[in-house]
Amino acid sequence: MGRIEYIMADKVGFFKRVISLFSERKSWVRQIGVAGIAGAVSWQVGDLLVKNGGVVAAIVCTLSIRISLHKSLREGFGQIIGTAIGASVALTAVELFNFGFISVGITIVMCAVVARALHLGEVASINVPVTALIVIGPGLSESTAIHRLSSTLIGASIAIFFSYFSHAKTPVGRSIDQIASVSAKAADLLAHMSEGVASGYSQQDAGNWLAKARLLIEEIPAIRAQSVEARGHARWFPNARRDEAQEIYIQGIALEHTVVQIRTIARTLFDSAVSGGIADSTQKAIAVALSAASYAISSRFEDTDLSFDDSHQSATSDARDASSALAETLIGDAKDADQEQIVRGISLAANIDRIADSLDQSSPALRDVITPDEPEAGKVLRISVRAQLAQLVKAISRRMRTIFRR
Questions:
Q1: Mind spelling out the 3-state secondary structure of the chain?
Q2: At CA 401, angle to CA 400 and CA 403, rounded to 5?
Q3: More confident residue, 9 or 157
Q4: d(CA 102, CA 105)
Q5: Which of the four pLDDT bands, split at 50, 70 and 90, describes residue 188?
Q6: What is the fold of 171-374?
Q7: Which of 32, 84, 191, 203 is the most exposed place for a label (fewest CB within 10 A)?
Q8: What does the alpha-carbon distance between residue 134 and residue 149 come to, in Å, rounded to a whole number?
């Protein structure tokens, strides 16, 4: 009897573990569920509207749908451009060389050249030859190319529609969640540094702090991309508030500056440990300053309130006061302490001051310096249509002036 109960308990535990794999990843389950439904709907609608168009529609939908409406719009636009270019190049190649390895090779090469000439981004540049190969498949003709182009439009449109349901929250809400998560990790890391400095840390402890700080830095690009999406969403959707999205974007930049300073602090503590450790006379002041910075971060990002109230101001003021006290302690010990250690200590004080400036957004570096939205490689068009047209007009004008002068 006991063996049977043990087997049943083991099976129940196994099923609970399997269920937890999905219940703990609700966002991921929602995304793949939406993607699956979108692909199935694309197949059905493609077959209903275009003869044998379900396969192409489902493929394009799967390629286009992303984790958000903003990205799916971008991917769908890239698919449409890619299909138009691919269909034209494929029809021309087959017309000249018939269907075969020569026409396939020429299609791929020409698609890459055209994508480069139009300054398409990395994603769209890949989509151009992919959709060209879809179009150039067996049985290619003008009517078939039109059918596949129509199926591509259907698949991209359905992907854009269903991507709206990929997330339970708005882009601003997702940005807030990401900022809250990273800021909590940053505050916790500073708290561990403070405790370690107060009790006397080892080089191994400092190495662990530095490793965690580097991992925090790696989360910044995701915050940047999400806040950019929030601003883009606010521009196009009437139910979104532009001022709220802009403030979230500034908060993301402020957190980025904060995390960079934390990594610098971790590196400074590691260098100090390598050089023999921190002087006993400055341990307490450094620990207090790090603790104050940790509390300031927690106070600033612990809720979704965008305003900077008195409690937040008090926390950043405490961090500045602790930083000033640390600097005074270091200056007082300057005659007896090692010069390199004094320099590192002053560096810590400066880092904590910058954290406070970032948290209360008093630093001009946050608002007066233009921050790029995203890398060019992530854009469908590396250069906007307006800019490309302006360049083309200038080139034609220069050419015409040259001809007339002759």
A1: CHHHHHHHHHHHHHHHHHHHHHHCCHHHHHHHHHHHHHHHHHHHHHHHHCCCCHHHHHHHHHHHCCCCHHHHHHHHHHHHHHHHHHHHHHHHHHHHHCCCHHHHHHHHHHHHHHHHHCCECHHHHHHHHHHHHHHCCCCCCHHHHHHHHHHHHHHHHHHHHHHCCCCCCCHHHHHHHHHHHHHHHHHHHHHHHHHHHHHCCCHHHHHHHHHHHHHHHHCHHHHHHHHHHHHHHHHHCCCCCHHHHHHHHHHHHHHHHHHHHHHHHHHHHHHHHHCCCCCHHHHHHHHHHHHHHHHHHHHHHCCCCCCCCHHHHHHHHHHHHHHHHHHHHHHHCCCCCCHHHHHHHHHHHHHHHHHHHHHCCCCHHHHCCCCCCCCHHHCCECCCHHHHHHHHHHHHHHHHHHHHHC
A2: 65
A3: 157
A4: 5
A5: very high
A6: Methane Monooxygenase Hydroxylase; Chain G, domain 1 (1.20.58)
A7: 32
A8: 10
Highest mean pLDDT among 143-152, 221-230, 296-305, 325-334: 221-230
Provide the token pair at 307.
Answer: 């305003």
Q: Say yes or no to pLDDT of 344 above 70.
A: yes
Mean of the pLDDT values across residues 20-41? 77
pLDDT at site 62: 80
Regarding predicted confidence, which is higher, 78 or 149?
149
Query: Distance from first CA to last CA of the chain, Å, rounded?
Result: 104
How many Å apart are CA 72 and CA 123, to the nearest integer?
A: 12
Please give the backbone phi and psi of residue 381, each rounded to the nearest 5 degrees, phi first.
-115, 115
Residues 6+ apart with CB under 8 A from 384: none
